C-alpha cells in the first residue's frame, strides 16, 4: 500500500483536441469535467463557458470530430454536452495514472488539476505527456486528509463555481469581518465582480440545496 498521494497541476500546450482548438480560435475560456472515454473510443464531454459561448458553439458545431452537441444556457454560463471522436492529451495522462478532477482550456493552453499516487507515478505521467504535447508541472503538493473528502460527499457544482468558492474561502471573503471584497476575488479569478458574485450565488444555491435537501 502507498500512503503518499500528490495533488498536481499541469499546464499543457500543443494539444490538437477540439476544445483546445476552439478555445484558441475564439479566445473563450472553457471549464470542463474530466472526459469519459467509451469503449468505442469516443469521449463524452461536459463543459461550460461564459463570454464567447455563442462563437464556441458555432465552432464546435462545425467541427466534424464533435457529435450530438447539446447547448443549454443559464443567466451567465452556457453548458455543453457532446461526443468527441478525437482524444485529448488528458487521456494519455489518465492511462499513466493521473486522476483528473478539473480541466480548463484558455486560448489553446490547458490546465489540468488532479492527483497521482506517489512520485514514481508522477514521473510516468510527465513522461507520457511529453511524448505528445508540451507539458509543464505548475504545482505539486501532498494531499492532506482535509482535502480528501469521501466520494459520496462530492458536491455537484460546476468547476468554475468550485474554483470561485475555494478562492473566496482562501482569500477570506467568508471571514467575519470580511478580509477582501468581491472585486478583489474577481481580480484573482480573472473575471468581473458581477461574474464572481453570480458564480458564488449559484454555487451556494447548489450546495445548500444538496445539503438541506
Describe the 3D structure.
The chain is of the alpha+beta class and 213 residues long. It folds into two domains: 6-142, no CATH class; 154-212, Orthogonal Bundle (Arc Repressor Mutant, subunit A). Helices cover 37% and strands 28% of the residues. The chain has seven helices and nine strands. It has helices spanning 18-26, 53-61, 89-95, 119-130, 159-171, 182-189, 193-212, and strands at residues 6-13, 30-32, 36-37, 43-49, 66-73, 78-84, 99-106, 109-116, 134-142. Strands 1, 2, 3, 4, 5, 6, 7, 8 and 9 form a nine-stranded antiparallel β-sheet that branches. α1 (18-26) packs across α2, α3 runs antiparallel to α4 (119-130) and α5 (159-171) crosses α6 (182-189). The longest helix is centred in the last third of the chain and has 20 residues, at 193-212. It starts with 5 loop residues before the first strand and ends with a helix.
Amino acid at each position: 500500500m502507498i500512503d503518499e498521494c500528490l495533488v498536481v497541476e499541469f499546464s499543457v500546450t500543443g494539444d490538437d483536441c477540439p476544445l483546445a482548438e476552439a478555445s484558441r480560435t475564439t479566445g473563450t475560456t472553457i471549464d470542463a469535467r474530466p472526459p469519459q472515454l467509451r469503449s468505442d473510443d469516443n469521449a463524452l464531454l461536459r463543459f461550460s463557458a461564459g463570454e464567447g459561448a455563442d462563437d464556441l458553439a458555432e465552432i464546435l458545431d462545425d467541427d466534424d470530430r464533435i457529435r450530438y452537441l447539446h447547448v443549454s444556457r443559464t443567466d451567465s454560463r452556457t453548458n455543453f454536452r457532446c461526443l468527441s471522436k478525437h482524444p485529448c492529451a488528458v487521456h494519455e495522462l489518465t492511462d499513466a495514472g493521473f486522476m483528473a478532477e478539473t480541466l480548463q482550456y484558455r486560448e489553446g493552453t490547458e490546465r489540468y488539476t488532479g492527483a497521482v499516487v506517489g512520485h514514481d507515478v508522477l514521473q510516468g505521467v510527465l513522461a507520457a505527456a511529453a511524448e505528445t504535447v508540451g507539458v509543464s508541472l505548475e504545482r505539486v503538493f501532498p494531499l492532506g486528509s482535509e482535502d480528501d473528502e469521501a466520494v459520496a460527499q462530492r458536491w455537484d457544482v460546476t468547476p468554475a463555481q468550485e474554483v470561485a468558492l475555494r478562492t473566496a474561502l482562501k482569500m477570506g471573503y467568508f471571514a467575519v469581518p470580511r478580509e477582501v471584497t468581491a472585486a478583489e476575488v474577481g481580480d484573482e479569478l480573472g473575471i468581473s465582480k458581477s461574474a464572481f458574485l453570480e458564480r458564488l450565488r449559484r454555487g451556494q444555491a447548489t450546495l445548500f440545496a444538496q445539503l438541506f435537501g
